[in-house]
TrEMBL record:
It is found in: Secreted. It comes from Haloarcula argentinensis. Residues 311-324 have a biased composition (Basic and acidic residues). This is DNRLRE domain-containing protein. Residues 311-420 are annotated as: Disordered. Transmembrane segments: none annotated.
């Protein structure tokens, strides 16, 4: 590291820095680290150790160099915590590799608080959570930290020796602030409302320490190429949660989490391979700093590169303070200076880390709201067979693509022709009173279509359709494709995806499904291209069909069920029509107002007929 830069900054101490430095010294001493005999620097550091699997496998000195440097510089760098990002070893059943890392990490014992998380390589069988994790537990299980005052605990515990207590939490203080660190196992399983699962256990820890700013570490979370949170599970049995789910369910709703650290991914090339960072906004409107580092595919596994995350009071430009990230190898004494290795974020430590910071949740031991019903529709799953999709092409106006496995959205196909291709998609039978359907009149909380993107492109504007069509429909059958003119399709797009990358693509279609629950005709959607870089998706006839997932709250009254027999059918439609015509018939007025506009009229009769569907 550049000591001259630090000396220069220490020479311009402000009152704010003096107070913070004093807080830092107290915090570190209380945690059992050795007090510095020299001048206390004005910043404190969290060190991230990326995947060490190559060092363990090959027995090179780099892993031990890393921890020795941390121990030697714990005072000079004010190192408050060390977080290992998983894949401690390369072969989870190899004692020699575990012994190497045991010795390496033991250098930190009694020096600084630290944590490890499981990676996919730390299981006896690669990618398989159901395989043995006994050696990880033996060397890096909770027993390793017994007697450490900074060790909070492990969980969840359900009596399953293979899975219990693989996640841990730690408490440390620095800069006058109190922090919580959550170390969650690879692709952490479960739901936040079930404390017997990893995510639920993590939520209970956050609820226990609502006043502590929190760093979360898990092995697989952010990818480097494409740079985004993971959208697909890699675990062999698909047990766990993706990075996107961890963000949506745990990180974003809990305002105290300000940073997520991870490793694992290394798809990029050159100096950017295995590195990524982004700033996301959580539910409380606060910034969350998400950082990926993994150098295993570089020469010798990266020559011991590690991450120094420095918290610098008073060094901000746009905000009072700054988090500065540096990437350094103790073995080579070289610092990486490219933009993916050296970067920072300005923020206000007092506003973000203090116990009264915005977004800090009130602790709740157990949720007092019931689970929201959720249904999923995917061709060939659980007996569902109602998905219809096709592609219509201006270049081949009479051609039908109802059985194609890949569908393309493009504004110039063939390339350079200027001829448009559109995709039509529909999920039939999703509204109704049978099990597995969404009851008419339900309040749709969230509806998402997941599409497997086989080739990324410029994306599409997605519009709700108002015209009937089938898998055999063609460009010509619509007299020149679908127009978003309010007649063939609703003029306002449900969403405009922007550029999409290869992998799973999720589209929010809540407004569409709500309209159908209220009795509008379900004709599905049209995907209209946003550019001439085609977007290819897998169809209902492929190995990965589109999936519609809907969460809803059922209405106490079933819309359209005017005779109160529990379903919407021909009897309801007929009775409603007679009532509208002025005949003296008994109808449930609340159920008769299908569209919810306060009146019962011909529009409600049409909506009831749509809801009746095959029951007519």
């Amino acid at each position: 590291m550049d000591s001259s830069d630090r000396s220069e900054r220490l020479a311009t101490t402000t009152r704010r820095r003096v107070l913070k430095a004093a807080g830092t010294g107290v915090g570190l001493t209380a945690l059992g680290t050795t007090a510095s005999t020299g001048q206390q620097s004005d910043y404190w550091t969290v060190v991230a150790l990326p995947d060490t699997q190559v060092y363990a496998k090959e027995g090179t000195p780099y892993g031990k160099d890393q921890t020795q440097w941390i121990a030697d510089n714990a005072d000079a760098e004010n190192i408050a915590f060390v977080s290992h990002e998983g894949d401690v070893v390369d072969h989870g059943d190899d004692d020699a590799e575990w012994e190497y890392m045991d010795e390496a990490m033991a250098t930190l014992d009694g020096v600084v608080p630290y944590a490890t998380v499981t990676g996919n390589h730390d299981y006896a069988t690669l990618w398989d959570r159901n395989s043995s994790v006994a050696k990880y537990r033996e060397y890096f299980g909770p027993s390793r930290y017994e007697g450490r005052d900074w060790f909070g605990g492990a969980g969840p515990t359900n009596g399953d020796e293979g899975r219990d207590n693989l996640s841990t939490y730690q408490l440390f203080s620095a800069g006058g602030y109190d922090f919580l660190h959550l170390a969650l196992e690879w692709e952490p399983p479960g739901t936040v409302d079930d404390p017997s699962t990893t995510l639920g256990w993590a939520q209970s820890v956050l609820d226990q320490y609502p006043d502590r700013a929190t760093i979360l570490t898990t092995h697989s979370y952010l990818r480097d190429e494409p740079q985004r949170r993971t959208r697909k599970l890699q675990e062999a049995s698909e047990i766990g949660n993706t990075g996107q789910t961890v963000w949506e369910d745990l990180v974003s709703p809990n305002g105290q989490i300000f940073m997520v650290l991870c490793g694992h991914w290394h798809d990029g090339t050159g100096k950017s391979g295995g590195e990524a960072h982004q700033v996301s906004t959580n539910n409380a409107g606060s910034s969350v700093y998400e950082l990926l580092a993994n150098y295993q595919f570089r020469d010798d596994g990266g020559h011991g590169l590690l991450r120094c995350i420095e918290f610098r009071p008073g060094d901000g430009s746009d905000e009072p303070d700054r988090i500065q990230v540096r990437t350094y190898s103790p073995s080579t004494d070289e610092e990486q200076t490219d933009d993916d290795s050296q970067f920072g974020f300005d923020l206000d430590f007092d506003a973000r880390f203090s116990s009264s910071s915005p977004g800090t949740p009130t602790p709740t031991a157990t949720p007092d709201t019931p689970d929201i019903p959720t249904v999923t529709f995917q061709q060939g799953t659980d007996g569902y067979s109602g998905t219809t999709d096709t592609e219509i092409r201006a270049a081949e106006p009479e051609a039908s693509y109802g059985t194609a496995e890949t569908l393309s959205i493009d504004s110039s196909d063939p390339e350079g022709s200027g001829s448009t291709t559109q995709v039509l998609l529909r999920f039939d039978g999703i509204i109704g009173t049978d099990g597995g359907q969404i009851p008419p009149g339900s309040d749709v909380k969230q509806a998402t279509v997941a599409l497997e993107t086989s080739d990324g492109g410029d994306g599409a504007a997605v519009h709700r359709l108002r015209t009937e069509w089938s898998a055999d429909s063609t460009w010509a059958s619509f007299d020149g494709g679908i127009q978003a003119d309010g007649s063939q399709a609703v003029a306002e797009a449900v969403t405009r995806t922007g550029t999409v990358e290869t992998d799973e693509t999720s589209i929010d279609v809540t407004t569409s499904v709500q309209a159908w629950a209220n009795g509008a005709q379900n004709a599905g959607w049209v995907f209209r291209p946003l550019g001439n870089d085609d977007w290819d998706i897998q169809s209902a006839d492929s190995a990965i069909p589109p999936t519609l997932t809907v969460s809803y709250t059922p209405s106490e009254t079933v819309a359209g069920d005017v005779d109160g027999d529990g379903d919407v059918d021909t009897d309801d439609v007929g009775r409603l029509q007679r009532s509208i015509a002025g005949e003296d018939v008994n109808v449930d007025r609340d159920a008769a107002d299908v569209d919810g506009d306060g009146d019962v009229d011909i529009g409600d009769a049409v909506a009831a007929r749509n809801l009746a569907g095959d029951n007519q």
